[in-house]
Specification:
This protein is α/β, with parallel strands linked by helices. It has one domain: Alpha/Beta hydrolase fold, catalytic domain (Rossmann fold), CATH 3.40.50. The chain has helices at residues 9-22, 30-35, 100-113, 160-168, 209-229, 242-253, 297-307, 329-338, 344-350, 358-370, and strands at 52-62, 76-86, 94-96, 129-134, 145-149, 172-176, 184-186, 198-200, 235-240, 257-263, 286-291, 313-318. The strands form 2 sheets. A 10-stranded mixed sheet has the order 3-4-1-2-6-5-9-10-11-12, sandwiched between helices. Strands 7-8 form a two-stranded antiparallel sheet. Strand 9, helix 6 (242-253) and strand 10 (257-263) form a beta-alpha-beta unit. It starts with 8 loop residues before the first helix and ends with a helix. 46% of the residues are buried. Residues 1-37 have low confidence and may be disordered. Residues 1-35 form the signal peptide.
Length: 373
């Protein structure tokens, strides 16, 4: 996969449309699109804990590695969001889920990255605000830190709801983007080898086993670099889909990770070979969190291989849920359904009808036991 030239934005968009159609993506009903011509505004639920949430964006550069997807860059660049507990209230601005530039690209990419589920029109993706506020001072004192790795093709911002919930109960949370993999990532500026501030995904629908291992290996290295860059000696990890796979493998490789949650990430490659984490008995707590709507034989095989070793590893399954229930789509998709921009079948295929708060209760309960505030 890394030997293929990266497609230009227009090439990717056209290819993505073809892929969406091949996957059976349904076009918006023209009447629905017209009714939403101004773009509906989506809202994220407020966190329920006693603390406010402060946000800081950081640009990190790992000069010891090159970018696997675009070697011309010469280094590995990352964007992260640091979220910390603050005094609740205040008038500081709320952090948008997407910057205006990211939202423009996501408007094109959304129905391709998540085909056939997300609508191609009718949503103002730039209007959604998180409940994290910029320019705030964190509460004094040392607090445990959790790192989050999003799913393949998702940006870090699609984990905003769960992150804010965890921060509101006292954890620090770091949302990590994986550029070249994430749908879109905006950087502070351009640099040699990257001529635009917003970098869009270079993942392709024909990814092979080698490409998948490159993606997971890069994500593991990204997470370990963030631990280094932030000077963390103890941390928890949680991740979704490919992020769950990377989190589990980083947990296996790095003793600084004291507990981890893999939210529906396979523990094997596309060729069926188990990752090292699934071959040995874990000696620290690891949670395998799945859904009844996305469970398949590959999960059963790779997760069962790890569970067979024993140790402090557990498997939990959310009822009436589907794969993206672990992301902000759990809050966004029901709004799209109510607006007529998604069908009931599309909602079920993406997030299910899981009760609100089920994911946050599961993850928060795990870290409350194994990395308490």
């Amino acid at each position: 996969m890394t030997d293929n030239p990266a497609p230009g934005r227009r090439t990717f968009v056209k290819g993505g449309v073809a892929a969406a159609l091949a996957l059976g993506g349904a076009a918006l009903n023209p009447a629905q699109a017209l009714a939403s011509s101004n773009g509906m505004r989506l809202r994220l639920p407020a966190p329920t804990g006693p603390y406010g949430v402060g946000a800081e964006i950081r640009y990190l550069v790992d000069r010891s590695r090159n970018d696997p997807w675009t070697p011309a860059i010469g280094v590995r660049e990352l964007m992260v969001t640091l979220l910390r507990p603050t005094v609740p209230g205040g008038r500081q601005p709320r952090l948008p889920q997407l910057t205006p530039a990211e939202a423009r690209d996501f408007t094109d990419l959304a129905p391709m990255v998540r085909a056939p589920f997300l609508p191609a029109a009718g949503v103002d993706w730039a209007a959604t605000l998180t409940h994290a506020r910029t320019g705030t001072a964190p509460l004094p004192g040392r607090r445990p830190t959790l790192l989050h790795s999003p799913g393949g093709g998702d940006s870090r911002t699609m984990g905003s709801v769960l992150a804010a919930e965890l921060v509101s109960y006292g954890w620090n949370v770091v949302l990590v983007d994986h550029p070249g993999d994430a749908s879109q990532v905006e950087f502070p500026g351009v640099r040699p080898g990257r001529s635009e501030r917003v970098r869009i995904t270079e993942l392709r629908p024909d990814m092979d086993a080698a490409g998948f291992r490159t993606m997971i290996g890069t994500r593991v290295a990204d997470l370990r670099f963030v631990l280094d860059a932030l000077g963390l000696r103890r941390a928890g990890l949680y991740g979704h889909s490919a992020g769950g796979t990377a989190v589990a493998q980083a947990f296996h490789e790095d003793r600084r990770v004291v507990a981890a949650v893999n939210m529906e990430g396979y523990l094997d490659g596309l060729d069926g070979e188990l990752f090292p984490v699934a071959r040995q008995r874990p000696d620290r707590p690891l949670l395998l969190a799945g859904t009844d709507g996305f469970r398949d034989a590959r999960f059963d095989r790779s997760w069962s291989a790890l569970l067979a070793h024993g140790g402090p590893v557990a498997r939990r399954e959310l009822a009436h849920a589907n794969h993206w229930a672990f992301t902000d789509y759990a809050a966004l998709v029901p709004q799209l359904r109510r607006a007529g921009l998604m069908t009931a079948e599309q909602r079920a295929g993406m997030v299910g009808t899981v009760r609100p708060g089920a994911v946050s209760q599961l993850v928060r309960g795990f870290f409350a036991r194994h990395l308490p505030v």
